[in-house]
Amino acid sequence: MDPSADSPSPLRHIPLCYDNANSEASALRLVLALEPDWKQHQNCIEFVKFTDGITNTLLKAVKKGPGQSRECIDQEAIMLRAYGEGTAVLIDRERERLSHSLLASHGLAPPLLASFDNGLLYKFIPGEVCSPSDLRRPEIWRGVARRLAEWHATLPISSISSEPNLEAQNGVPNGHRREDSPVPMVQQKRGPGTSDQAPTEEAPITSGKPVPNLWTVMQKWIAALPAGTEAERKRQAMLRTELVWLAGRLADTPGIGDKPLVFAHCDLLSGNVIVAPTASPDSSSASLSSQQTNGSDDALTSVSFIDYEYATPAPAAFDLANHFAEWGGFDCDFSVLPTKRQRRDFLQAYLVSFNQHLGRRYRDEELEQLFQDVDAFRGIPGFYWGIWALIQATISHIDFDYASYAEVRLGEYWAWKENLEKRAVNGKEKPPRERRWAEE
Predict the structure, then answer these.
(1) What does the domain layout of the chain look like in residue ranges?
(2) Which family does it belong to (predicted)?
(3) Rounded Cα–Cα distance for residues 317 and 261 (Å)
(4) pTM
């Protein structure tokens, strides 16, 4: 295989910005810079603003001509994705661009058309956005399982990560790296009371692994947490201690098929799962209900994933556990999380696809191992999104109660850890999420 096959092609850059306060005018300038031929149809251009995402604004630009079908209009439609203010502390936008380019080269994402100063332009994917309840439908989750397996089995992490820290592998202590070391360092945010000297730096929490990865991303987020008060500093130190404990416990999970780290989506919530259109181009989301639901391969629904801003090398077990947590939606409805049987069925469909893409035979013992690995990671999504929400509570202007969401998600983590360490011993009743996870 040509090693350059997965290298992203140069992407055109448009030196303009999207302005949320002047949305349509700034979006129109960007679209016309990309497609000058649209100028003669300027009066036919419309923008559909999707609900503001948690970290982005998303617009669909369409050029409507007389007598054109919806299918024809959508084939020419352009998506405009503008980055949310202050989100650079959470999201590596260059890694997002590289992820999107790689996925597009594998036919797993829409083609990128151009970048602009605060966002991206790319082709529109026709289809219907899932709801949390859709994720629990057999024909949908089978499609998700197979598509996610394709990601994990076929996509190289080398396009979005560097080589491992070889110094750490060879016994050089963290913090004693050469100046020419390629490993990026995490800069800690200073708060009141710190000196005016250069900020301290942290070595990557994982040694001998490609960076970034799940653990170094969380390390960076913790370093970016507010630390202006004593309470904030104590919380930051506590979360840092927890991360060290987690990495020591789970960072060396071997994975399946000699893949300890995979190209993980890391944000596979319902809104990022797109169901392919049915035969009728004008079918609506209600058509999802009319499809077969017997769980057989014949009932498999084709799905695509969107929004790659959190894509990072991570254990497959994390990506899977994180998706299962999203069955409950933003409301964190623990009562609808997958039971043991549902998780086992999902993971079997995943492994069949995973092995097919690698040219291997499916083995039952791999199912048992992956089931245990996902179980071991079930508390980590709460920790991951809890930290994320603590940062969002300080930077986001979106009308969402991030502070409360942070406590709910971190509560998932603490419930998992308490169940792991104490509840099995002292006989206390398990919290709701842990009870649901244990159901057959």
Answers:
(1) 17-101+110-124
(2) Belongs to the choline/ethanolamine kinase family.
(3) 9
(4) 0.85
